[in-house]
Amino acid sequence: MATSSTSSAWVDQGAGGPLAGLKVLELGQLIAGPFAAKTLADFGADVIKIEPPDGGDPLRRWRLLKDGTSVWWQLQSRNKRSVALDLKDPEAQAVVRELALEADVLVENFRPGALEGFGLAPEALMAANPKLIVLRVSGYGQTGPYRDKPGFGVVAEAMGGLRHLSGEPGRVPVRVGVSIGDTLAALHGVIGVLMALHEREKSGRGQIIDVALYEAVFNCMESLLPEYSAFGAVRGPAGSALPGIAPTNAYVCRDGQVLVAGNGDSIFRRLMKTIAREDLAADPELADNTGRVARVAELDAAIGAWTAERTVDEVLAALDAAAVPGGRIYTAADIAHDPHYAAREMLLPVTLADGSTLTVPGIVPKLSRTPGGHHRNAPALGQDTDEVLAPLRARREAEG
């Protein structure tokens, strides 16, 4: 079907931002794919989210609900438009193909092969629209022996090496309390999209971006593999410390805990003077990280003895005065009342359809000249179906 610039489902939302005019078709659900599309939408992209008519994206009903809808949804799907289509329906598949003709980016996070099963193979969509960029996020990637295994973020975090490092030595590893594997994959996907858009300026062609959840986690594991390759070293959990870097840990105070990072050479000396341990500050064996790691238990004990006699506020005031990095362990309540969060516009109030106010995280990253923003609330299921499909129907009628 031919395209027409005078009859298009895509709109300029007046959002501004560096991605204004970018057309993104989102076919994913839950976390990784939608988070990637949300990030693009925050910076001006027109994101059309395709959802199943029967219930929509399951994230709508995850965790705590307000008036039947997850408050998480208000963050994950802000700035998007919702179109209710059953991808198992051939007519719905035809609509997606038509939308893809004019799209810049398609985002999906189904299991490998699912998109092809819907008659929406990326190669076919790109044959019709050679400029289309397709972001595919899956547990294990589009190739390899694990390709067809179901993969969620928690499994990817384990396979990527993160889960083995979390928790206390000798105890069952614990998971990070958020879907960090999905989010890391989403951010890698956004990076891939931006790189592909940049390359398209030269070649005029799109391409497929293959992001595996476990690889996104693995990419953030620092020296884990090289240390095993060079020394046969298998890192294990270390609680709140960071192995091989000292001193950096969580320490108990009279009314809570603080994090102290005194691992820079000059920072370490300032920290030791702050806790009245000039002997350690002047010890030549502790002048660099190697020596400090060898005596980390002694250093942790000295710092812990000092913090145990003080409140969190007293410890942090002393650390600030000495220019030593330290911080409290924030809860959601701490975040919501923190003046720095507020000053950086990271506590974003939005007005919901019922007139109530909900605070959601602000926009990251901060761009000086073309910042992102919250331009429209997360849509109700199928809220924009008529708006999006009307131009397509009109075009079909005009073409006879």
TrEMBL record:
Alphabetically ordered keywords of this record: Transferase
InterPro entries: CoA-transferase_III_domain (IPR050483), CoA-Trfase_fam_III (IPR003673), CoA-Trfase_III_dom3_sf (IPR044855), CoA-Trfase_III_dom_1_sf (IPR023606)
Pfam family, one: CoA_transf_3
An MF annotation (GO) of this entry: CoA-transferase activity
Region (Disordered) residue spans: 367-387
Protein name, per record: Formyl-CoA transferase
